[in-house]
Design a protein that fits this description.
The structure holds two protein chains of two kinds.
Chain A: E1 23-25, E2 31-35, E3 45-46, E4 53-54, E5 59-62, E6 71-72, E7 77-86, E8 92-100, H1 123-132, H2 145-149, E9 159-163, H3 173-180, H4 182-196, E10 200-206, H5 210-219, E11 226-231, H6 240-248, E12 263-267, H7 268-280, E13 286-292, E14 300-305, H8 310-316, E15 324-329, E16 336-337, E17 351-356, H9 357-360, H10 373-377, H11 384-392, H12 396-401, H13 412-416, H14 423-442
Parallel strand pairs in A: 1-14, 9-10, 9-12, 10-11, 13-17
Antiparallel strand pairs in A: 2-8, 3-5, 4-7, 5-6, 7-8, 13-14, 15-16, 15-17
Chain B: H1 19-67, H2 78-88, H3 96-109, H4 124-135, H5 137-140, H6 165-171, H7 177-181, H8 187-192, H9 204-216, H10 223-242, H11 250-255, H12 259-266, H13 277-297, H14 304-321
Helix pairs in contact in B: 1-2, 1-3, 1-9, 2-3, 2-4, 3-4, 4-14, 9-12, 10-12, 10-13, 13-14
């Protein structure tokens, strides 16, 4: 019996169309748009201004708040503007716009492909480099990595969990990374273990990627402290709390972080970024992005500079197919549909999925028939139908009492609802409103 | 191009279930019982079923269009289910206009007056049946015997009526069970369905077949039917063990009357049954206990409808008391 989480879950069609496409590096964009809200928490603050010359890897924005992150230039050239640019939500946000000139890196970056597995940095140095390199969770949630690694004094980290689950349909960037950069990932894991001072690490992979599981097992034979765990294919297996439960049968208490049960979770991509930062002195300026869709000519996995417009990636796979209706940044379960393809790749962009018109439309909504499927599939044990009704009736007290804040927005409820009710939409509204009420109460 | 892109919240993919599919699968699951009723009760059964189903659809359509002024959704199949179930709950000798009044009440009052599908607190078919039971008590409790298929192809059922198994039991309450037993059909007959009773409830076998289909297709879960049947069986079994001269074998209770139909098709109505699995078990047990309670000590020979209706009333309370276990709390 493969391990899995206990409550709810669904199994959408996997559609990993791009799984056999090796990672392909694409050139830096002529103009890079670097958004300042690439991480969860406070936006970064620009430290360059119009006309400044920058090199690749140079610090261009600082995370000044506790939960924030540094940002580095993905190209060399001149800062054309510190202005606004459209982000994945369709809003304009502060962005640094850089025109590319040449290909000049900051000093000290090791650009060779040679594996550097010798760990010389101390625990403190590793933590500092991770912070200085602007590494955030690359799974999509973009929580700053260094903040996760700062274990409060009264807590103890027992396990590092490396999330290679990639349970979103279509996405294959983590999968390709595991196949192609396993040695580097293992070094990254060891670095994170040292930074956290934990005796054990578990790399979790869904069982629909047997070759990745096998490959990672081979690469870790000489590291008995690193365990590879195959998990049952069930969405949302890659959600932090569900993942911890699947592996260790520990329940992160409501409203708390994984460290409460002795765990720190980092994504596979993040682990690779940690390797590059610590061992190669390379800040986070690029990432792997899956660009795919059923009608897409050449479904691909790209190594892309942050700041590259999504439209550029789409050109690389043969353009928008005839009859397309929706472009999603991220996976189809939790990603955002883009209103504007000029939006750039950010640190959290795991994939671009293109749907045809038929797939894009939402089905007609019916009355709730109280079939309880939404409660059956909710991995948090919530009652989405009830919360959704509460939100529609502005009954914020009922929404709060029924734990709307616990919702992880995985979308399983809407996916399974035979009446097609926009449950997640409503729950998001509920979370925003109830969150505001709770904050006001505290003040 | 850019302006044509759909922008909507996640998730962007949807599972393959929808209300229509679910409802029409329930209709499909009701087919074996329907065909059995046609076989045993002939043309009158066909006529009543057609009137009930058509009546349900037409009444719902008219109310939605002209009273509620919404787009009618009769195509979703839920009105067809109510029509079928209500026809299943009447004797084949029922006058057609009584059927029509019954189905008008079921759809018009018990369903549409609350706002239509999903909003009704009581199962419309059961509400309709009980309305008919109190409105036309004699016609609703006179059951033609199931004839052999081809000699009942007529509307005259005079001389063929007889009490149902539960009716026999109720009429002769106080007598020693063994003296009654001779008049009761044997279990195999009851299972196959050649016994007196309402149209769709005579054949346990046909209903179980449909029920298994629903379970297999995951339209319903086992929680309500199993807890319903099991609690009825256990409760009746305890009575039987206490005094087998007064109380009949629990097997009889399982196969008689509308217990199977109620357990698989009426109590499992999504709209009117609890949401959590624990709640569903509580609901099922309540139905089972009340059914036996009413059958044994109540004024009516049959208790399934009343039991489900009463438990429907408790559904909101059960929903409040038995919530799913939440993660991390």
């Amino acid at each position: 019996m493969l391990k899995t989480f206990k409550l709810g879950g669904i199994h959408p069609e996997e559609n990993k169309i791009s799984k056999n496409s090796p990672i392909e590096e694409i050139e830096a964009p002529e103009t890079a748009y670097i958004l300042m809200n690439q991480n969860l928490g406070a936006p970064s603050v620009p430290v360059v201004s119009k006309g400044d010359k920058v090199k690749i890897g140079q610090l261009i924005a600082k995370g000044e708040a506790f939960i924030s992150a540094f940002v580095h230039s993905p190209v060399s050239g001149t800062v054309a503007a510190v202005d606004t640019h459209v982000d994945a939500t369709g809003y304009k946000r502060t962005a640094i716009i850089i025109n590319k000139e040449g290909d000049e890196w900051v000093d000290g970056v090791d650009l060779s492909d040679k594996l550097n597995s010798k760990i010389t940095a101390s625990k403190e140095e590793i933590l500092e480099i991770i912070k200085d390199s602007g590494i955030v969770g690359l799974g999509g949630a973009t929580f700053p990595a260094h903040v996760k690694l700062m274990v409060p004094k009264d807590k103890k980290a027992e396990y590092l969990i490396v999330n290679g689950v990639e349970c979103e349909p279509y996405l294959t960037s983590d999968y390709r990374l595991m196949l192609e950069k396993a040695d580097e990932i293992v070094v990254g894991v060891r670095l994170l273990m040292k930074a956290l001072d934990v005796p054990k690490a578990i790399i979790a992979i869904e069982n629909n990627k047997p070759d990745a599981i096998e490959h990672m097992k081979n690469k870790t034979v000489s590291y008995p402290e690193i365990l590879i765990e195959a998990l049952k294919v069930k969405y949302p297996q890659g959600a932090e709390k569900q993942l911890i439960y699947s592996l260790l049968k520990r329940e992160v208490p409501s409203g708390k972080l994984p460290i409460e049960v002795g765990c720190v979770v980092q994504n596979i991509g993040t682990t690779f970024a940690v390797y590059e930062a610590v061992q190669k002195n390379k800040p986070l300026i690029e990432r792997i992005v899956t660009v795919t869709g059923k009608k897409v000519k050449k479904p691909s996995n790209f190594k892309v500079r942050i700041g590259t417009p999504v439209s550029t990636l789409i050109e690389k796979v043969g353009g928008i197919p005839e009859g397309s209706g929706k472009v999603i940044s991220g996976g189809p379960m939790m990603g955002k549909s883009l209103a504007d393809l000029n939006t750039p790749v950010v640190k959290g962009t795991s994939g671009i999925v293109i749907f045809d018109e038929k797939e894009s439309k939402r089905n007609v909504t019916y009355n709730c028939i109280r079939c309880a499927r939404c409660t059956d599939v909710c991995p948090m044990g919530l009652q989405p139908y009830l919360l959704s009704n509460a939100v529609e009736n502005n009954a914020w007290d009922i929404a709060e009492k029924n734990k709307v804040m616990d919702c992880i927005e995985c979308g399983s409820c809407h996916y399974t609802c035979p009446s097609n009710r926009p449950l997640v939409d409503n729950l998001r509204i509920g979370k925003a409103k109830v969150g505001e009420i709770i904050r006001n109460r505290k003040n | 191009m850019m302006n044509l892109l759909t922008v909507s919240g996640s998730p962007h993919i949807h599972g393959n279930q929808n209300v229509k599919k679910i409802m029409w699968q329930v209709v499909l699951a009701l087919m074996p019982a329907m065909l059995v009723s046609f076989w045993y009760f002939g043309l009158s059964a066909i006529l009543l079923t057609v009137i009930s189903v058509t009546g349900a659809v037409v009444v719902e359509y008219l109310i939605a269009k002209f009273l509620l002024k919404t787009t009618p959704t009769v195509g979703d199949g839920s009105a067809v289910i109510t029509g079928l179930l209500l026809a299943f709950n009447v004797p084949s000798s029922l006058p057609w206009w009584e059927m029509l009044i019954g189905v008008t009440f079921a759809i018009g009052v018990a369903k549409m007056a609350y706002g239509g599908l999903g909003k009704n607190p009581f199962n419309p078919a059961i509400a309709g049946r009980i309305f008919m039971l109190v409105s036309f008590p004699v016609d609703m409790t006179t059951w033609p015997k199931p004839g052999l298929p081809f000699n009942t192809l007529n509307f005259s059922v005079d001389g063929l009526t007889g009490p149902t198994s539960l009716g026999i039991l109720k009429e002769r309450v106080g007598e020693n069970i063994s003296s009654i037993s001779a008049q009761l059909p044997d279990y195999m007959t009851m299972f196959i369905g050649e016994k007196g009773g309402s149209l769709g409830e005579v054949s346990a076998a046909a209903i179980i077949l449909g029920g298994l289909f629903l379970l297999f297709r995951r339209i319903i879960s086992w929680h309500i039917p199993i807890s319903f049947l099991l609690s009825a069986f256990v409760f009746a079994g305890i009575l039987y063990l206490v005094d087998d001269t007064q109380y009949i074998n629990p097997m009889f209770h399982l196969l008689a009357g509308g217990l199977m139909l109620g357990a698989f098709f009426m109590a499992t109505d999504m709209v009117t049954s609890p949401m959590s699995k624990t709640g569903q078990i509580v609901f099922g047990v309540g139905c089972g206990l009340l059914t036996i309670l009413i059958r044994v000590w109540g004024a009516y020979p049959e208790g399934v409808s009343f039991a489900i209706l009463i438990m429907n009333a408790f559904t909101p309370l059960i929903n409040k008391m038995f919530k799913p276990k939440s993660f991390g709390r």
